[in-house]
Amino acid sequence: MVFSRFFKFMSHDMAIDLGTANTVVYLRGRGVVLNEPSVVAVETLNGIKKVKAVGDDAKLMMGKTPGSIEAIRPLRDGVIADIEVAEEMIKHFIKKVNGGKKPMPWSHPQIVICVPSGSTSVERRAIRDAASNAGASQVWLIEEPMAAAIGAEMPVTEPIGSMVVDIGGGTTEVAVLSLRGLAYSTSVRVGGDKMDEAIVSYVRRNHNLLIGESTAERIKQEVGVAKPPADGIGQTIHIKGRDLVNGVPKEIQINQGQIAEALSEPVGTIVEGVRIALENTAPELAADIVDQGIVLTGGGALLQGIDEVLRDETGLPVTVAEDPLTCVALGTGRALEDPVFRGVLLAV
Questions:
Q1: Contact, 136 vs 127, CB < 8 A?
Q2: Which of 59, 159, 237, 304 suits a disulfide with 37, CB 3.0-4.6 Å?
Q3: CB atoms within 10 A of CB 268
Q4: How far is it, in rounded angstroms, from Cα 194 to Cα 212?
Q5: Residue 184 maps to a domain
Q6: Please, which residues bridge with residue 209 across strands?
Q7: Are residues 276 and 318 in the same domain?
Q8: 157: Cβ–Cβ under 8 A, 6 or more apart, which residues?
Q9: How far, in whole angstroms, is CA 283 from its chain's centroid?
C-alpha cells in the first residue's frame, strides 16, 4: 500500500490537448506547464530519419528548411496524420515536462488526451497508440467540446443545456451539453488552418503575391477580423512575399476590410455549423441556451468580431471564455484530477 502510494506520487499523470496547431500539457497538481506548436522537424540522412527539433524550435524552421530537413505537422483536422512523428512529438513533450528525463518504468504516467467529437474509432485508436508508445501506463480520451466546457467552468454536470463552440486549428467543435454528456455535437473541419489558407489564397488571387503559412497566421493574429470594420478599411498591415508575375520579393499593404473578405467563407462555415446544432437541439435544452448563451473557446475565439457575427446570426448572447487558448487543456486536467468528471472519460 505504501509503495503504491509512493509510485502514484512519483508518477507525473498528465492531460494533453493534442491540437492541430498547438499542444498544451497539464500536469497533475501543477496546472498547464507546456504550450508549444504541434510541429516536428525531421532530418533525413542516407535514408535514415532523425528528429531535429520539436515545438517552438521546429516552428521557426517552417518554410525555411533545406532539402534534408522537413518541418512536419503530424496532426491534420484534429487527428493524427503521421503516427510515427506524433509519437516522437508526444515523447519529447513528456520528457520536457519531466525535466528532460524519461519516465522510469515504474512511474509511467496516466494520460488523458482530448479528441474531436466527430473522430472515428480508428482515429481514436491512433491517438491512444501514439500515447501508449510514448510511455503512458494508461490512456483515457475525452471529447474536445466536453473538455472545453469543463475548462470554461460551464455547468456540465447539471440538468441545464449549455452550448460551447471550440474553434481550434483544424476543427470547430459545436456541442450542446447536459448532465455530463453531449446532447448534440458536430465537428466542422474548419478552424485556424483554413483561415490561414483563405488568407494565402486571397492575397495570391487579388495581389499576385505568394505568402507562406507563417505570414498568413501573423496577419490573422494581428489584424484578422470576422466582420468588416465600420469604415470598410480599418487597420492596415505590410506583408512580404514573392511576386507571382516578376518572381521577385515584394511588399504590399492590405487592410482589415480585405482580411474580413478573405475570412468570410471559413467564418460562414462556422456560423452554419452553429445554426445546424441549434436546429437539432431539443426544445427544453434550446430554452436553456436562450438564457445561458453560447461560449466560445479555442484560439479561433480570439479572432476579432467572431462573437459579434455569431450574436448577429443567432440572436443569442455569445461570450468568449476567460482563457480560450488553454480551456481544453484545463478541462482535460480537471477531468484527470476531479472524480466528479471521471464519468466523461472514454476508454478505447
A1: no
A2: 59
A3: 14
A4: 13
A5: yes
A6: 243
A7: yes
A8: 179, 180, 340, 341
A9: 30
Q: What are residue 315's DSSP bridge partners?
A: none
Q: How far apart are the first and last CA of the chain?
A: 29
Asked if 54 contacts 88 with a C-beta cutoff of 8 angstroms, the reply is: yes
CATH number at residue 196: 3.90.640.10
Question: Structurally, how many domains does the chain consist of?
Answer: 3
**Strand runs (DSSP E) across the chain, as ranges?**
14-18, 22-27, 31-37, 40-45, 48-54, 69-72, 75-76, 79-80, 110-115, 138-143, 162-167, 172-178, 181-188, 209-210, 236-243, 249-255, 294-297, 318-320
All three cell numbers of 97? 515536462
Q: Is 285 helix (H, G, I), strand (E, B) or coil?
A: helix
Same domain, 12 and 80: yes
Q: Is the pTM of this model over 0.85?
A: yes
Mutual angle of helices 213-223 and 192-207, in 10-degree steps: 100
**Cell, residue 150:** 469543463
What single string gives the DSSP state of each residue in 14-42?
A: EEEEE-SSEEEEEETTTEEEEEEES-EEE
The three cell numbers of residue 296 are 466560445
Local confidence pLDDT in tens for the 348 residues of the chain: 443 443 344 457 899 998 999 999 999 989 999 999 999 999 988 888 888 999 999 998 888 888 889 989 998 877 888 888 888 898 899 888 877 655 554 457 889 999 888 788 888 888 888 888 888 888 999 999 999 999 999 999 899 999 999 999 989 999 999 988 889 999 899 999 999 999 999 999 999 999 998 899 999 999 999 999 999 999 999 999 999 999 999 999 999 999 999 999 999 999 999 999 999 999 999 999 999 999 999 999 999 999 999 999 999 999 999 999 999 999 999 999 998 888 788 776
Structural domain of 247: 192-263
